[in-house]
Amino acid sequence: MKTLIVYATKHGSSEKAANMLKEKLKGELAVHNIAKKGLPNINNFDAIIVGGSIHAGMIQKKIKHFCNDNSEHLQKVHLGLYLCCMYKEEAQMQFDSAYSQELRDSALINGLFGGEFLFGKMNWFERSIVKKVVGINKSLSNIDHGAIDRFAEKFNLLPSQ
C-alpha cells in the first residue's frame, strides 16, 4: 500500500509524530510537511494520514484547508487522522473541532498523540502565554508513544486497496 502522511507543525510535535509513524508503518511511504513544500498528487496514494497539532486552540490552517479542499477524495482512500494536543482532557474535543464530521466518520483510524511545550522553539510571546496560562516555565513533552504504536499497528492491518 502506498501511504502519504500529510502534516503541519508549529513547533515540531506533529512532525515528530509523522516520523515515528513512518518508522512503524509498512509499505511505500511519503511524509510531507504541507507548510514547507508543494503538495504531491494525492491521487497516487492508496492511504492518507493527516496530522496536525493544536496551537492557540486551533489546528493549523493549512491542514484545515487541505482537509476541506480534498474532503471528497480523502473519504475514498484508507484514511487516518491524528492530532497532537497537550491536554488529554481536551484532546477529543479538539480533535472533533479540528476535523469535519464527514472525515471523522470516514477515517479508519484516529489517534490522539499527546503534545509538547517546546520553549526553545517558542517566541517570547508564546513562552509568556504558556507560563501565565499553564504555569510552567520549561519544556515539557507528553507525546504518547503507545498511542502512536497502536495507531501504526491498526493501520498496518488495513487491506491494500
What do you see in this structure?
This protein is α/β, with parallel strands linked by helices and 161 residues long. The chain has a single domain, classed as Rossmann fold, CATH 3.40.50. The chain is built from 7 helices and 8 strands, in the order βαβββααβααββαβα. The strands form 2 sheets. Strands 1, 2, 3, 4, 5 and 6 form a 6-stranded mixed sheet that branches. The protein has a two-stranded antiparallel ribbon with strand order 7-8. A hairpin with a 2-residue loop joins strand 3 (47-55) and strand 4. The model has no long low-confidence stretch (mean pLDDT 88).
Q: Could you list some keywords that capture this structure?
A:
161 residues, alpha/beta, Rossmann fold, six-stranded mixed sheet, two-stranded antiparallel ribbon, 7 helices, 24% strand, globular
How would you concisely characterize the structure shown here?
The chain has helices spanning 13-24, 61-69, 71-74, 88-98, 101-106, 124-134, 145-156; strands spanning 2-7, 28-33, 47-55, 58-59, 78-84, 109-112, 116-117, 140-141.
List low-confidence stretches.
none
Q: Tell me the number of structural domains.
A: 1
Total E-strand runs: 8
Please tally the helical runs, counting DSSP H or I stretches of 4 or more residues: 7
Straight-line distance between termini: 7 Å
Give the secondary structure arrangement, pairings included:
Elements: E1 2-7, H1 13-24, E2 28-33, E3 47-55, E4 58-59, H2 61-69, H3 71-74, E5 78-84, H4 88-98, H5 101-106, E6 109-112, E7 116-117, H6 124-134, E8 140-141, H7 145-156
Parallel strand pairs: 1-2, 1-3, 3-5, 5-6
Antiparallel strand pairs: 3-4, 7-8
Helix pairs in contact: 1-7
